[in-house]
Every structure is written in C-alpha cells, then in structure tokens.
Specification:
The protein is an alpha+beta fold. Helices cover 33% and strands 28% of the residues. The chain contains ten helices and twelve strands.
C-alpha cells in the first residue's frame, strides 16, 4: 500500500506540472519539478497505459484539479512545523561534510524559521562558523515517503537586535509553550533570514521547488491549522460519504476512501481500488477559507454526491 501511495497519480504528472504555479510569482521562479513516472502494470489505476474510460476520465480530472501553489504549500508546512532536521557543515570534519541535528523551531509571520540554540550544541558552533544550512520540515503525522516534506536552504544567523529577539521569543513560545529553558543563559535566538530556495516533495505525485523570493511571497493555507479534526471526524463517521464524493466528483469507483489532507482548495484522499491504495485530489466546489466555509462546502458536496448515488442526479 505504501508503495502504491508513492506511485499515486504518476501518469498525469506532466499535466500537473503545467498547472502548478508559485503563488504571486513568475514561472521563472519555479525551480524544479520531477516529471518522471514510476513503472507500473498496464492494468493499474495509475498506469498511463490503462485505457479504461473511467481511468482515462480520472486522469483528466486530476490534471486540472485545484491545489495549493508550491510556494503556499512550502509556507504551510513550515508554518505547521515544530521540529525539523537542520543540516550544518560539521566542524569535526573540517566543515566539508553535512551534519544533521533535530531542532525545535517556529516560523514568524514572514515564514522565517526561528530557533533557540544552546552554545553547547554542536550545530550552534557549526552555524557560527558557517551559517549556510538546510532545514527539512515534515508534515504533521509524517510516517514515510508518501507524506509531504519541504527543505529550506539558506543562512541562519544569531539575532542581535533586542526587539527582534523579544519577538522571536514570543513566536517560539507560542509554538512551544513549555520551553522554559529558552531563558537559560547558554541559549540565544537565531533565525533563517536568508532563504535561497525551498524544495517540496508533496507526497502526492508532486515535487518541485521555488526560490527564496517566491517562498516569502507565498502564504500559509488558512485551513491547515484546523484540518486534522475535520478529517478525523469525516474518516470516523462519514467514510461512505467520502467514497460517494470520490465517485461523483472525481469519477472514480473505489472500495474505500479517507481524507489525509485538507486545505482551502480541497482534499487529498487516500483511496483503495482493485487492491491498490493511492492518493488522489478532490477539489472543493468553491474555495473555503475558514472553518464555517469548509463545513458548508463539505455538507453541500456530501448531499449532492448522495443524491447522485441514489439516482437523483445533481
């Protein structure tokens, strides 16, 4: 199932690449997109060789399905993150090789990662010698290669201005309220002010990147902060409705479906069809930017799908 999830939507990826654009940024700042498809059997639901009319219609639907821009998705993952892997140039190897450390962080309103770093930590000394580094942030609930992650590449420096340090402390404690140790004498505030690029692996047949300017022009998704309880409720109590919506709106007959991601433009679903488990995109009929709007659009789509399943049309 995990392998099939990683393969999801590969045949339509070239069209997804054409549709994906950084938010408020030019195409020139879309740095990379991976177009290659995995090798799957011709009868697979995600095979480009499968000429079943339902599968062909499904591929066409997915090619135009609304989704967040790369910049907005990168900003969203960083905004949701609390811990990440920072890779610095390790001094123990002459600064020639990367060294990874798990660090707590919080993003400010500009998307800049903030850190409380102890002078006793190896990565703090590494950054003092060479601030260039990368930070890999995973999606909440990350379990493996089928889940989203983003890597920021940039420069981390110590915050010198007292007012900036005060603001950094407030932002960090808002994300880590129990981090009393940030006021210990050996800790100091650091921030990734310069971001030269953000590389996204969306875990949804979606991979690419934007440069630093496009990253900062992006914005966190307004729905992401409360997406998990909505998805959990739907998966626990309305799974049959998700299956019905998949059939009605995506045109795909599946045995099972669950919501694995939710944003202002729609849902990422994990579906099972013919023994294969993979991920698909189900856009909302209209964008929803707050909890009330999400409820309204999902209720409306659920009712429409149920009516269609009962033979009543739209």
């Amino acid at each position: 199932a995990a392998l099939a999830s990683a393969r999801a939507l590969a045949p339509g990826f070239a069209r997804l690449r054409a549709a994906a654009r950084p938010s408020r940024a030019s195409n020139a700042r879309l740095l990379c997109v991976t177009p290659r498809a995995h090798d799957v059997g011709e009868d697979s639901a995600i095979s480009e060789m499968n000429v079943d009319p339902e599968i062909e219609a499904f591929r066409e639907h997915q090619a135009g399905a609304a989704k967040l821009s790369f910049a907005d998705e990168c900003r969203t993952l960083v905004d949701l993150g609390r811990y990440a892997v920072i890779s610095t140039f390790g001094r123990e190897h002459g600064g020639a090789y990367p060294s990874g450390s798990i660090v707590g962080f919080a993003a400010d309103d500009k998307g800049r990662p903030i850190f409380a770093m102890s002078s006793m930590s190896g990565h703090t000394g590494d950054l003092a010698a060479n601030g260039n580094c990368s930070l890999t942030v995973t999606a909440p609930g990350f379990t493996g290669a089928a889940d989203a992650r983003v890597t920021l590449t940039g420069t981390v420096t110590k915050i010198a201005d007292p007012e900036d340090a005060k603001a950094a402390r407030e932002a960090y404690l808002a994300k880590h309220p129990d981090a009393f140790w940030v006021d210990f004498g050996d800790f100091a505030w650091h921030r990734m002010d310069a971001v030269v690029g953000a590389r996204l692996v969306g875990g949804f047949a979606r991979a690419g990147g934007v440069d630093g300017e496009a990253y900062f022009e992006g914005a966190p998704d307004p729905v992401a902060a409360f997406a998990t309880p909505i998805a959990s409720h739907m998966n626990a109590d309305h799974r049959d409705s998700i299956v019905a919506m998949t059939k009605h709106y995506v045109g795909l007959t599946v045995e099972d479906a669950s919501i694995v991601g939710l944003d202002a433009l729609g849902m990422n679903l994990q579906v099972t069809r013919g023994g294969e488990t993979f991920k698909i995109r189900l856009p909302f009929e209209t964008p929803a930017r707050d909890r009330k709007a999400v409820k309204e659009v999902m209720v409306a789509m659920t009712k429409t799908a149920a009516k269609a399943a009962a033979g009543g049309g739209e």
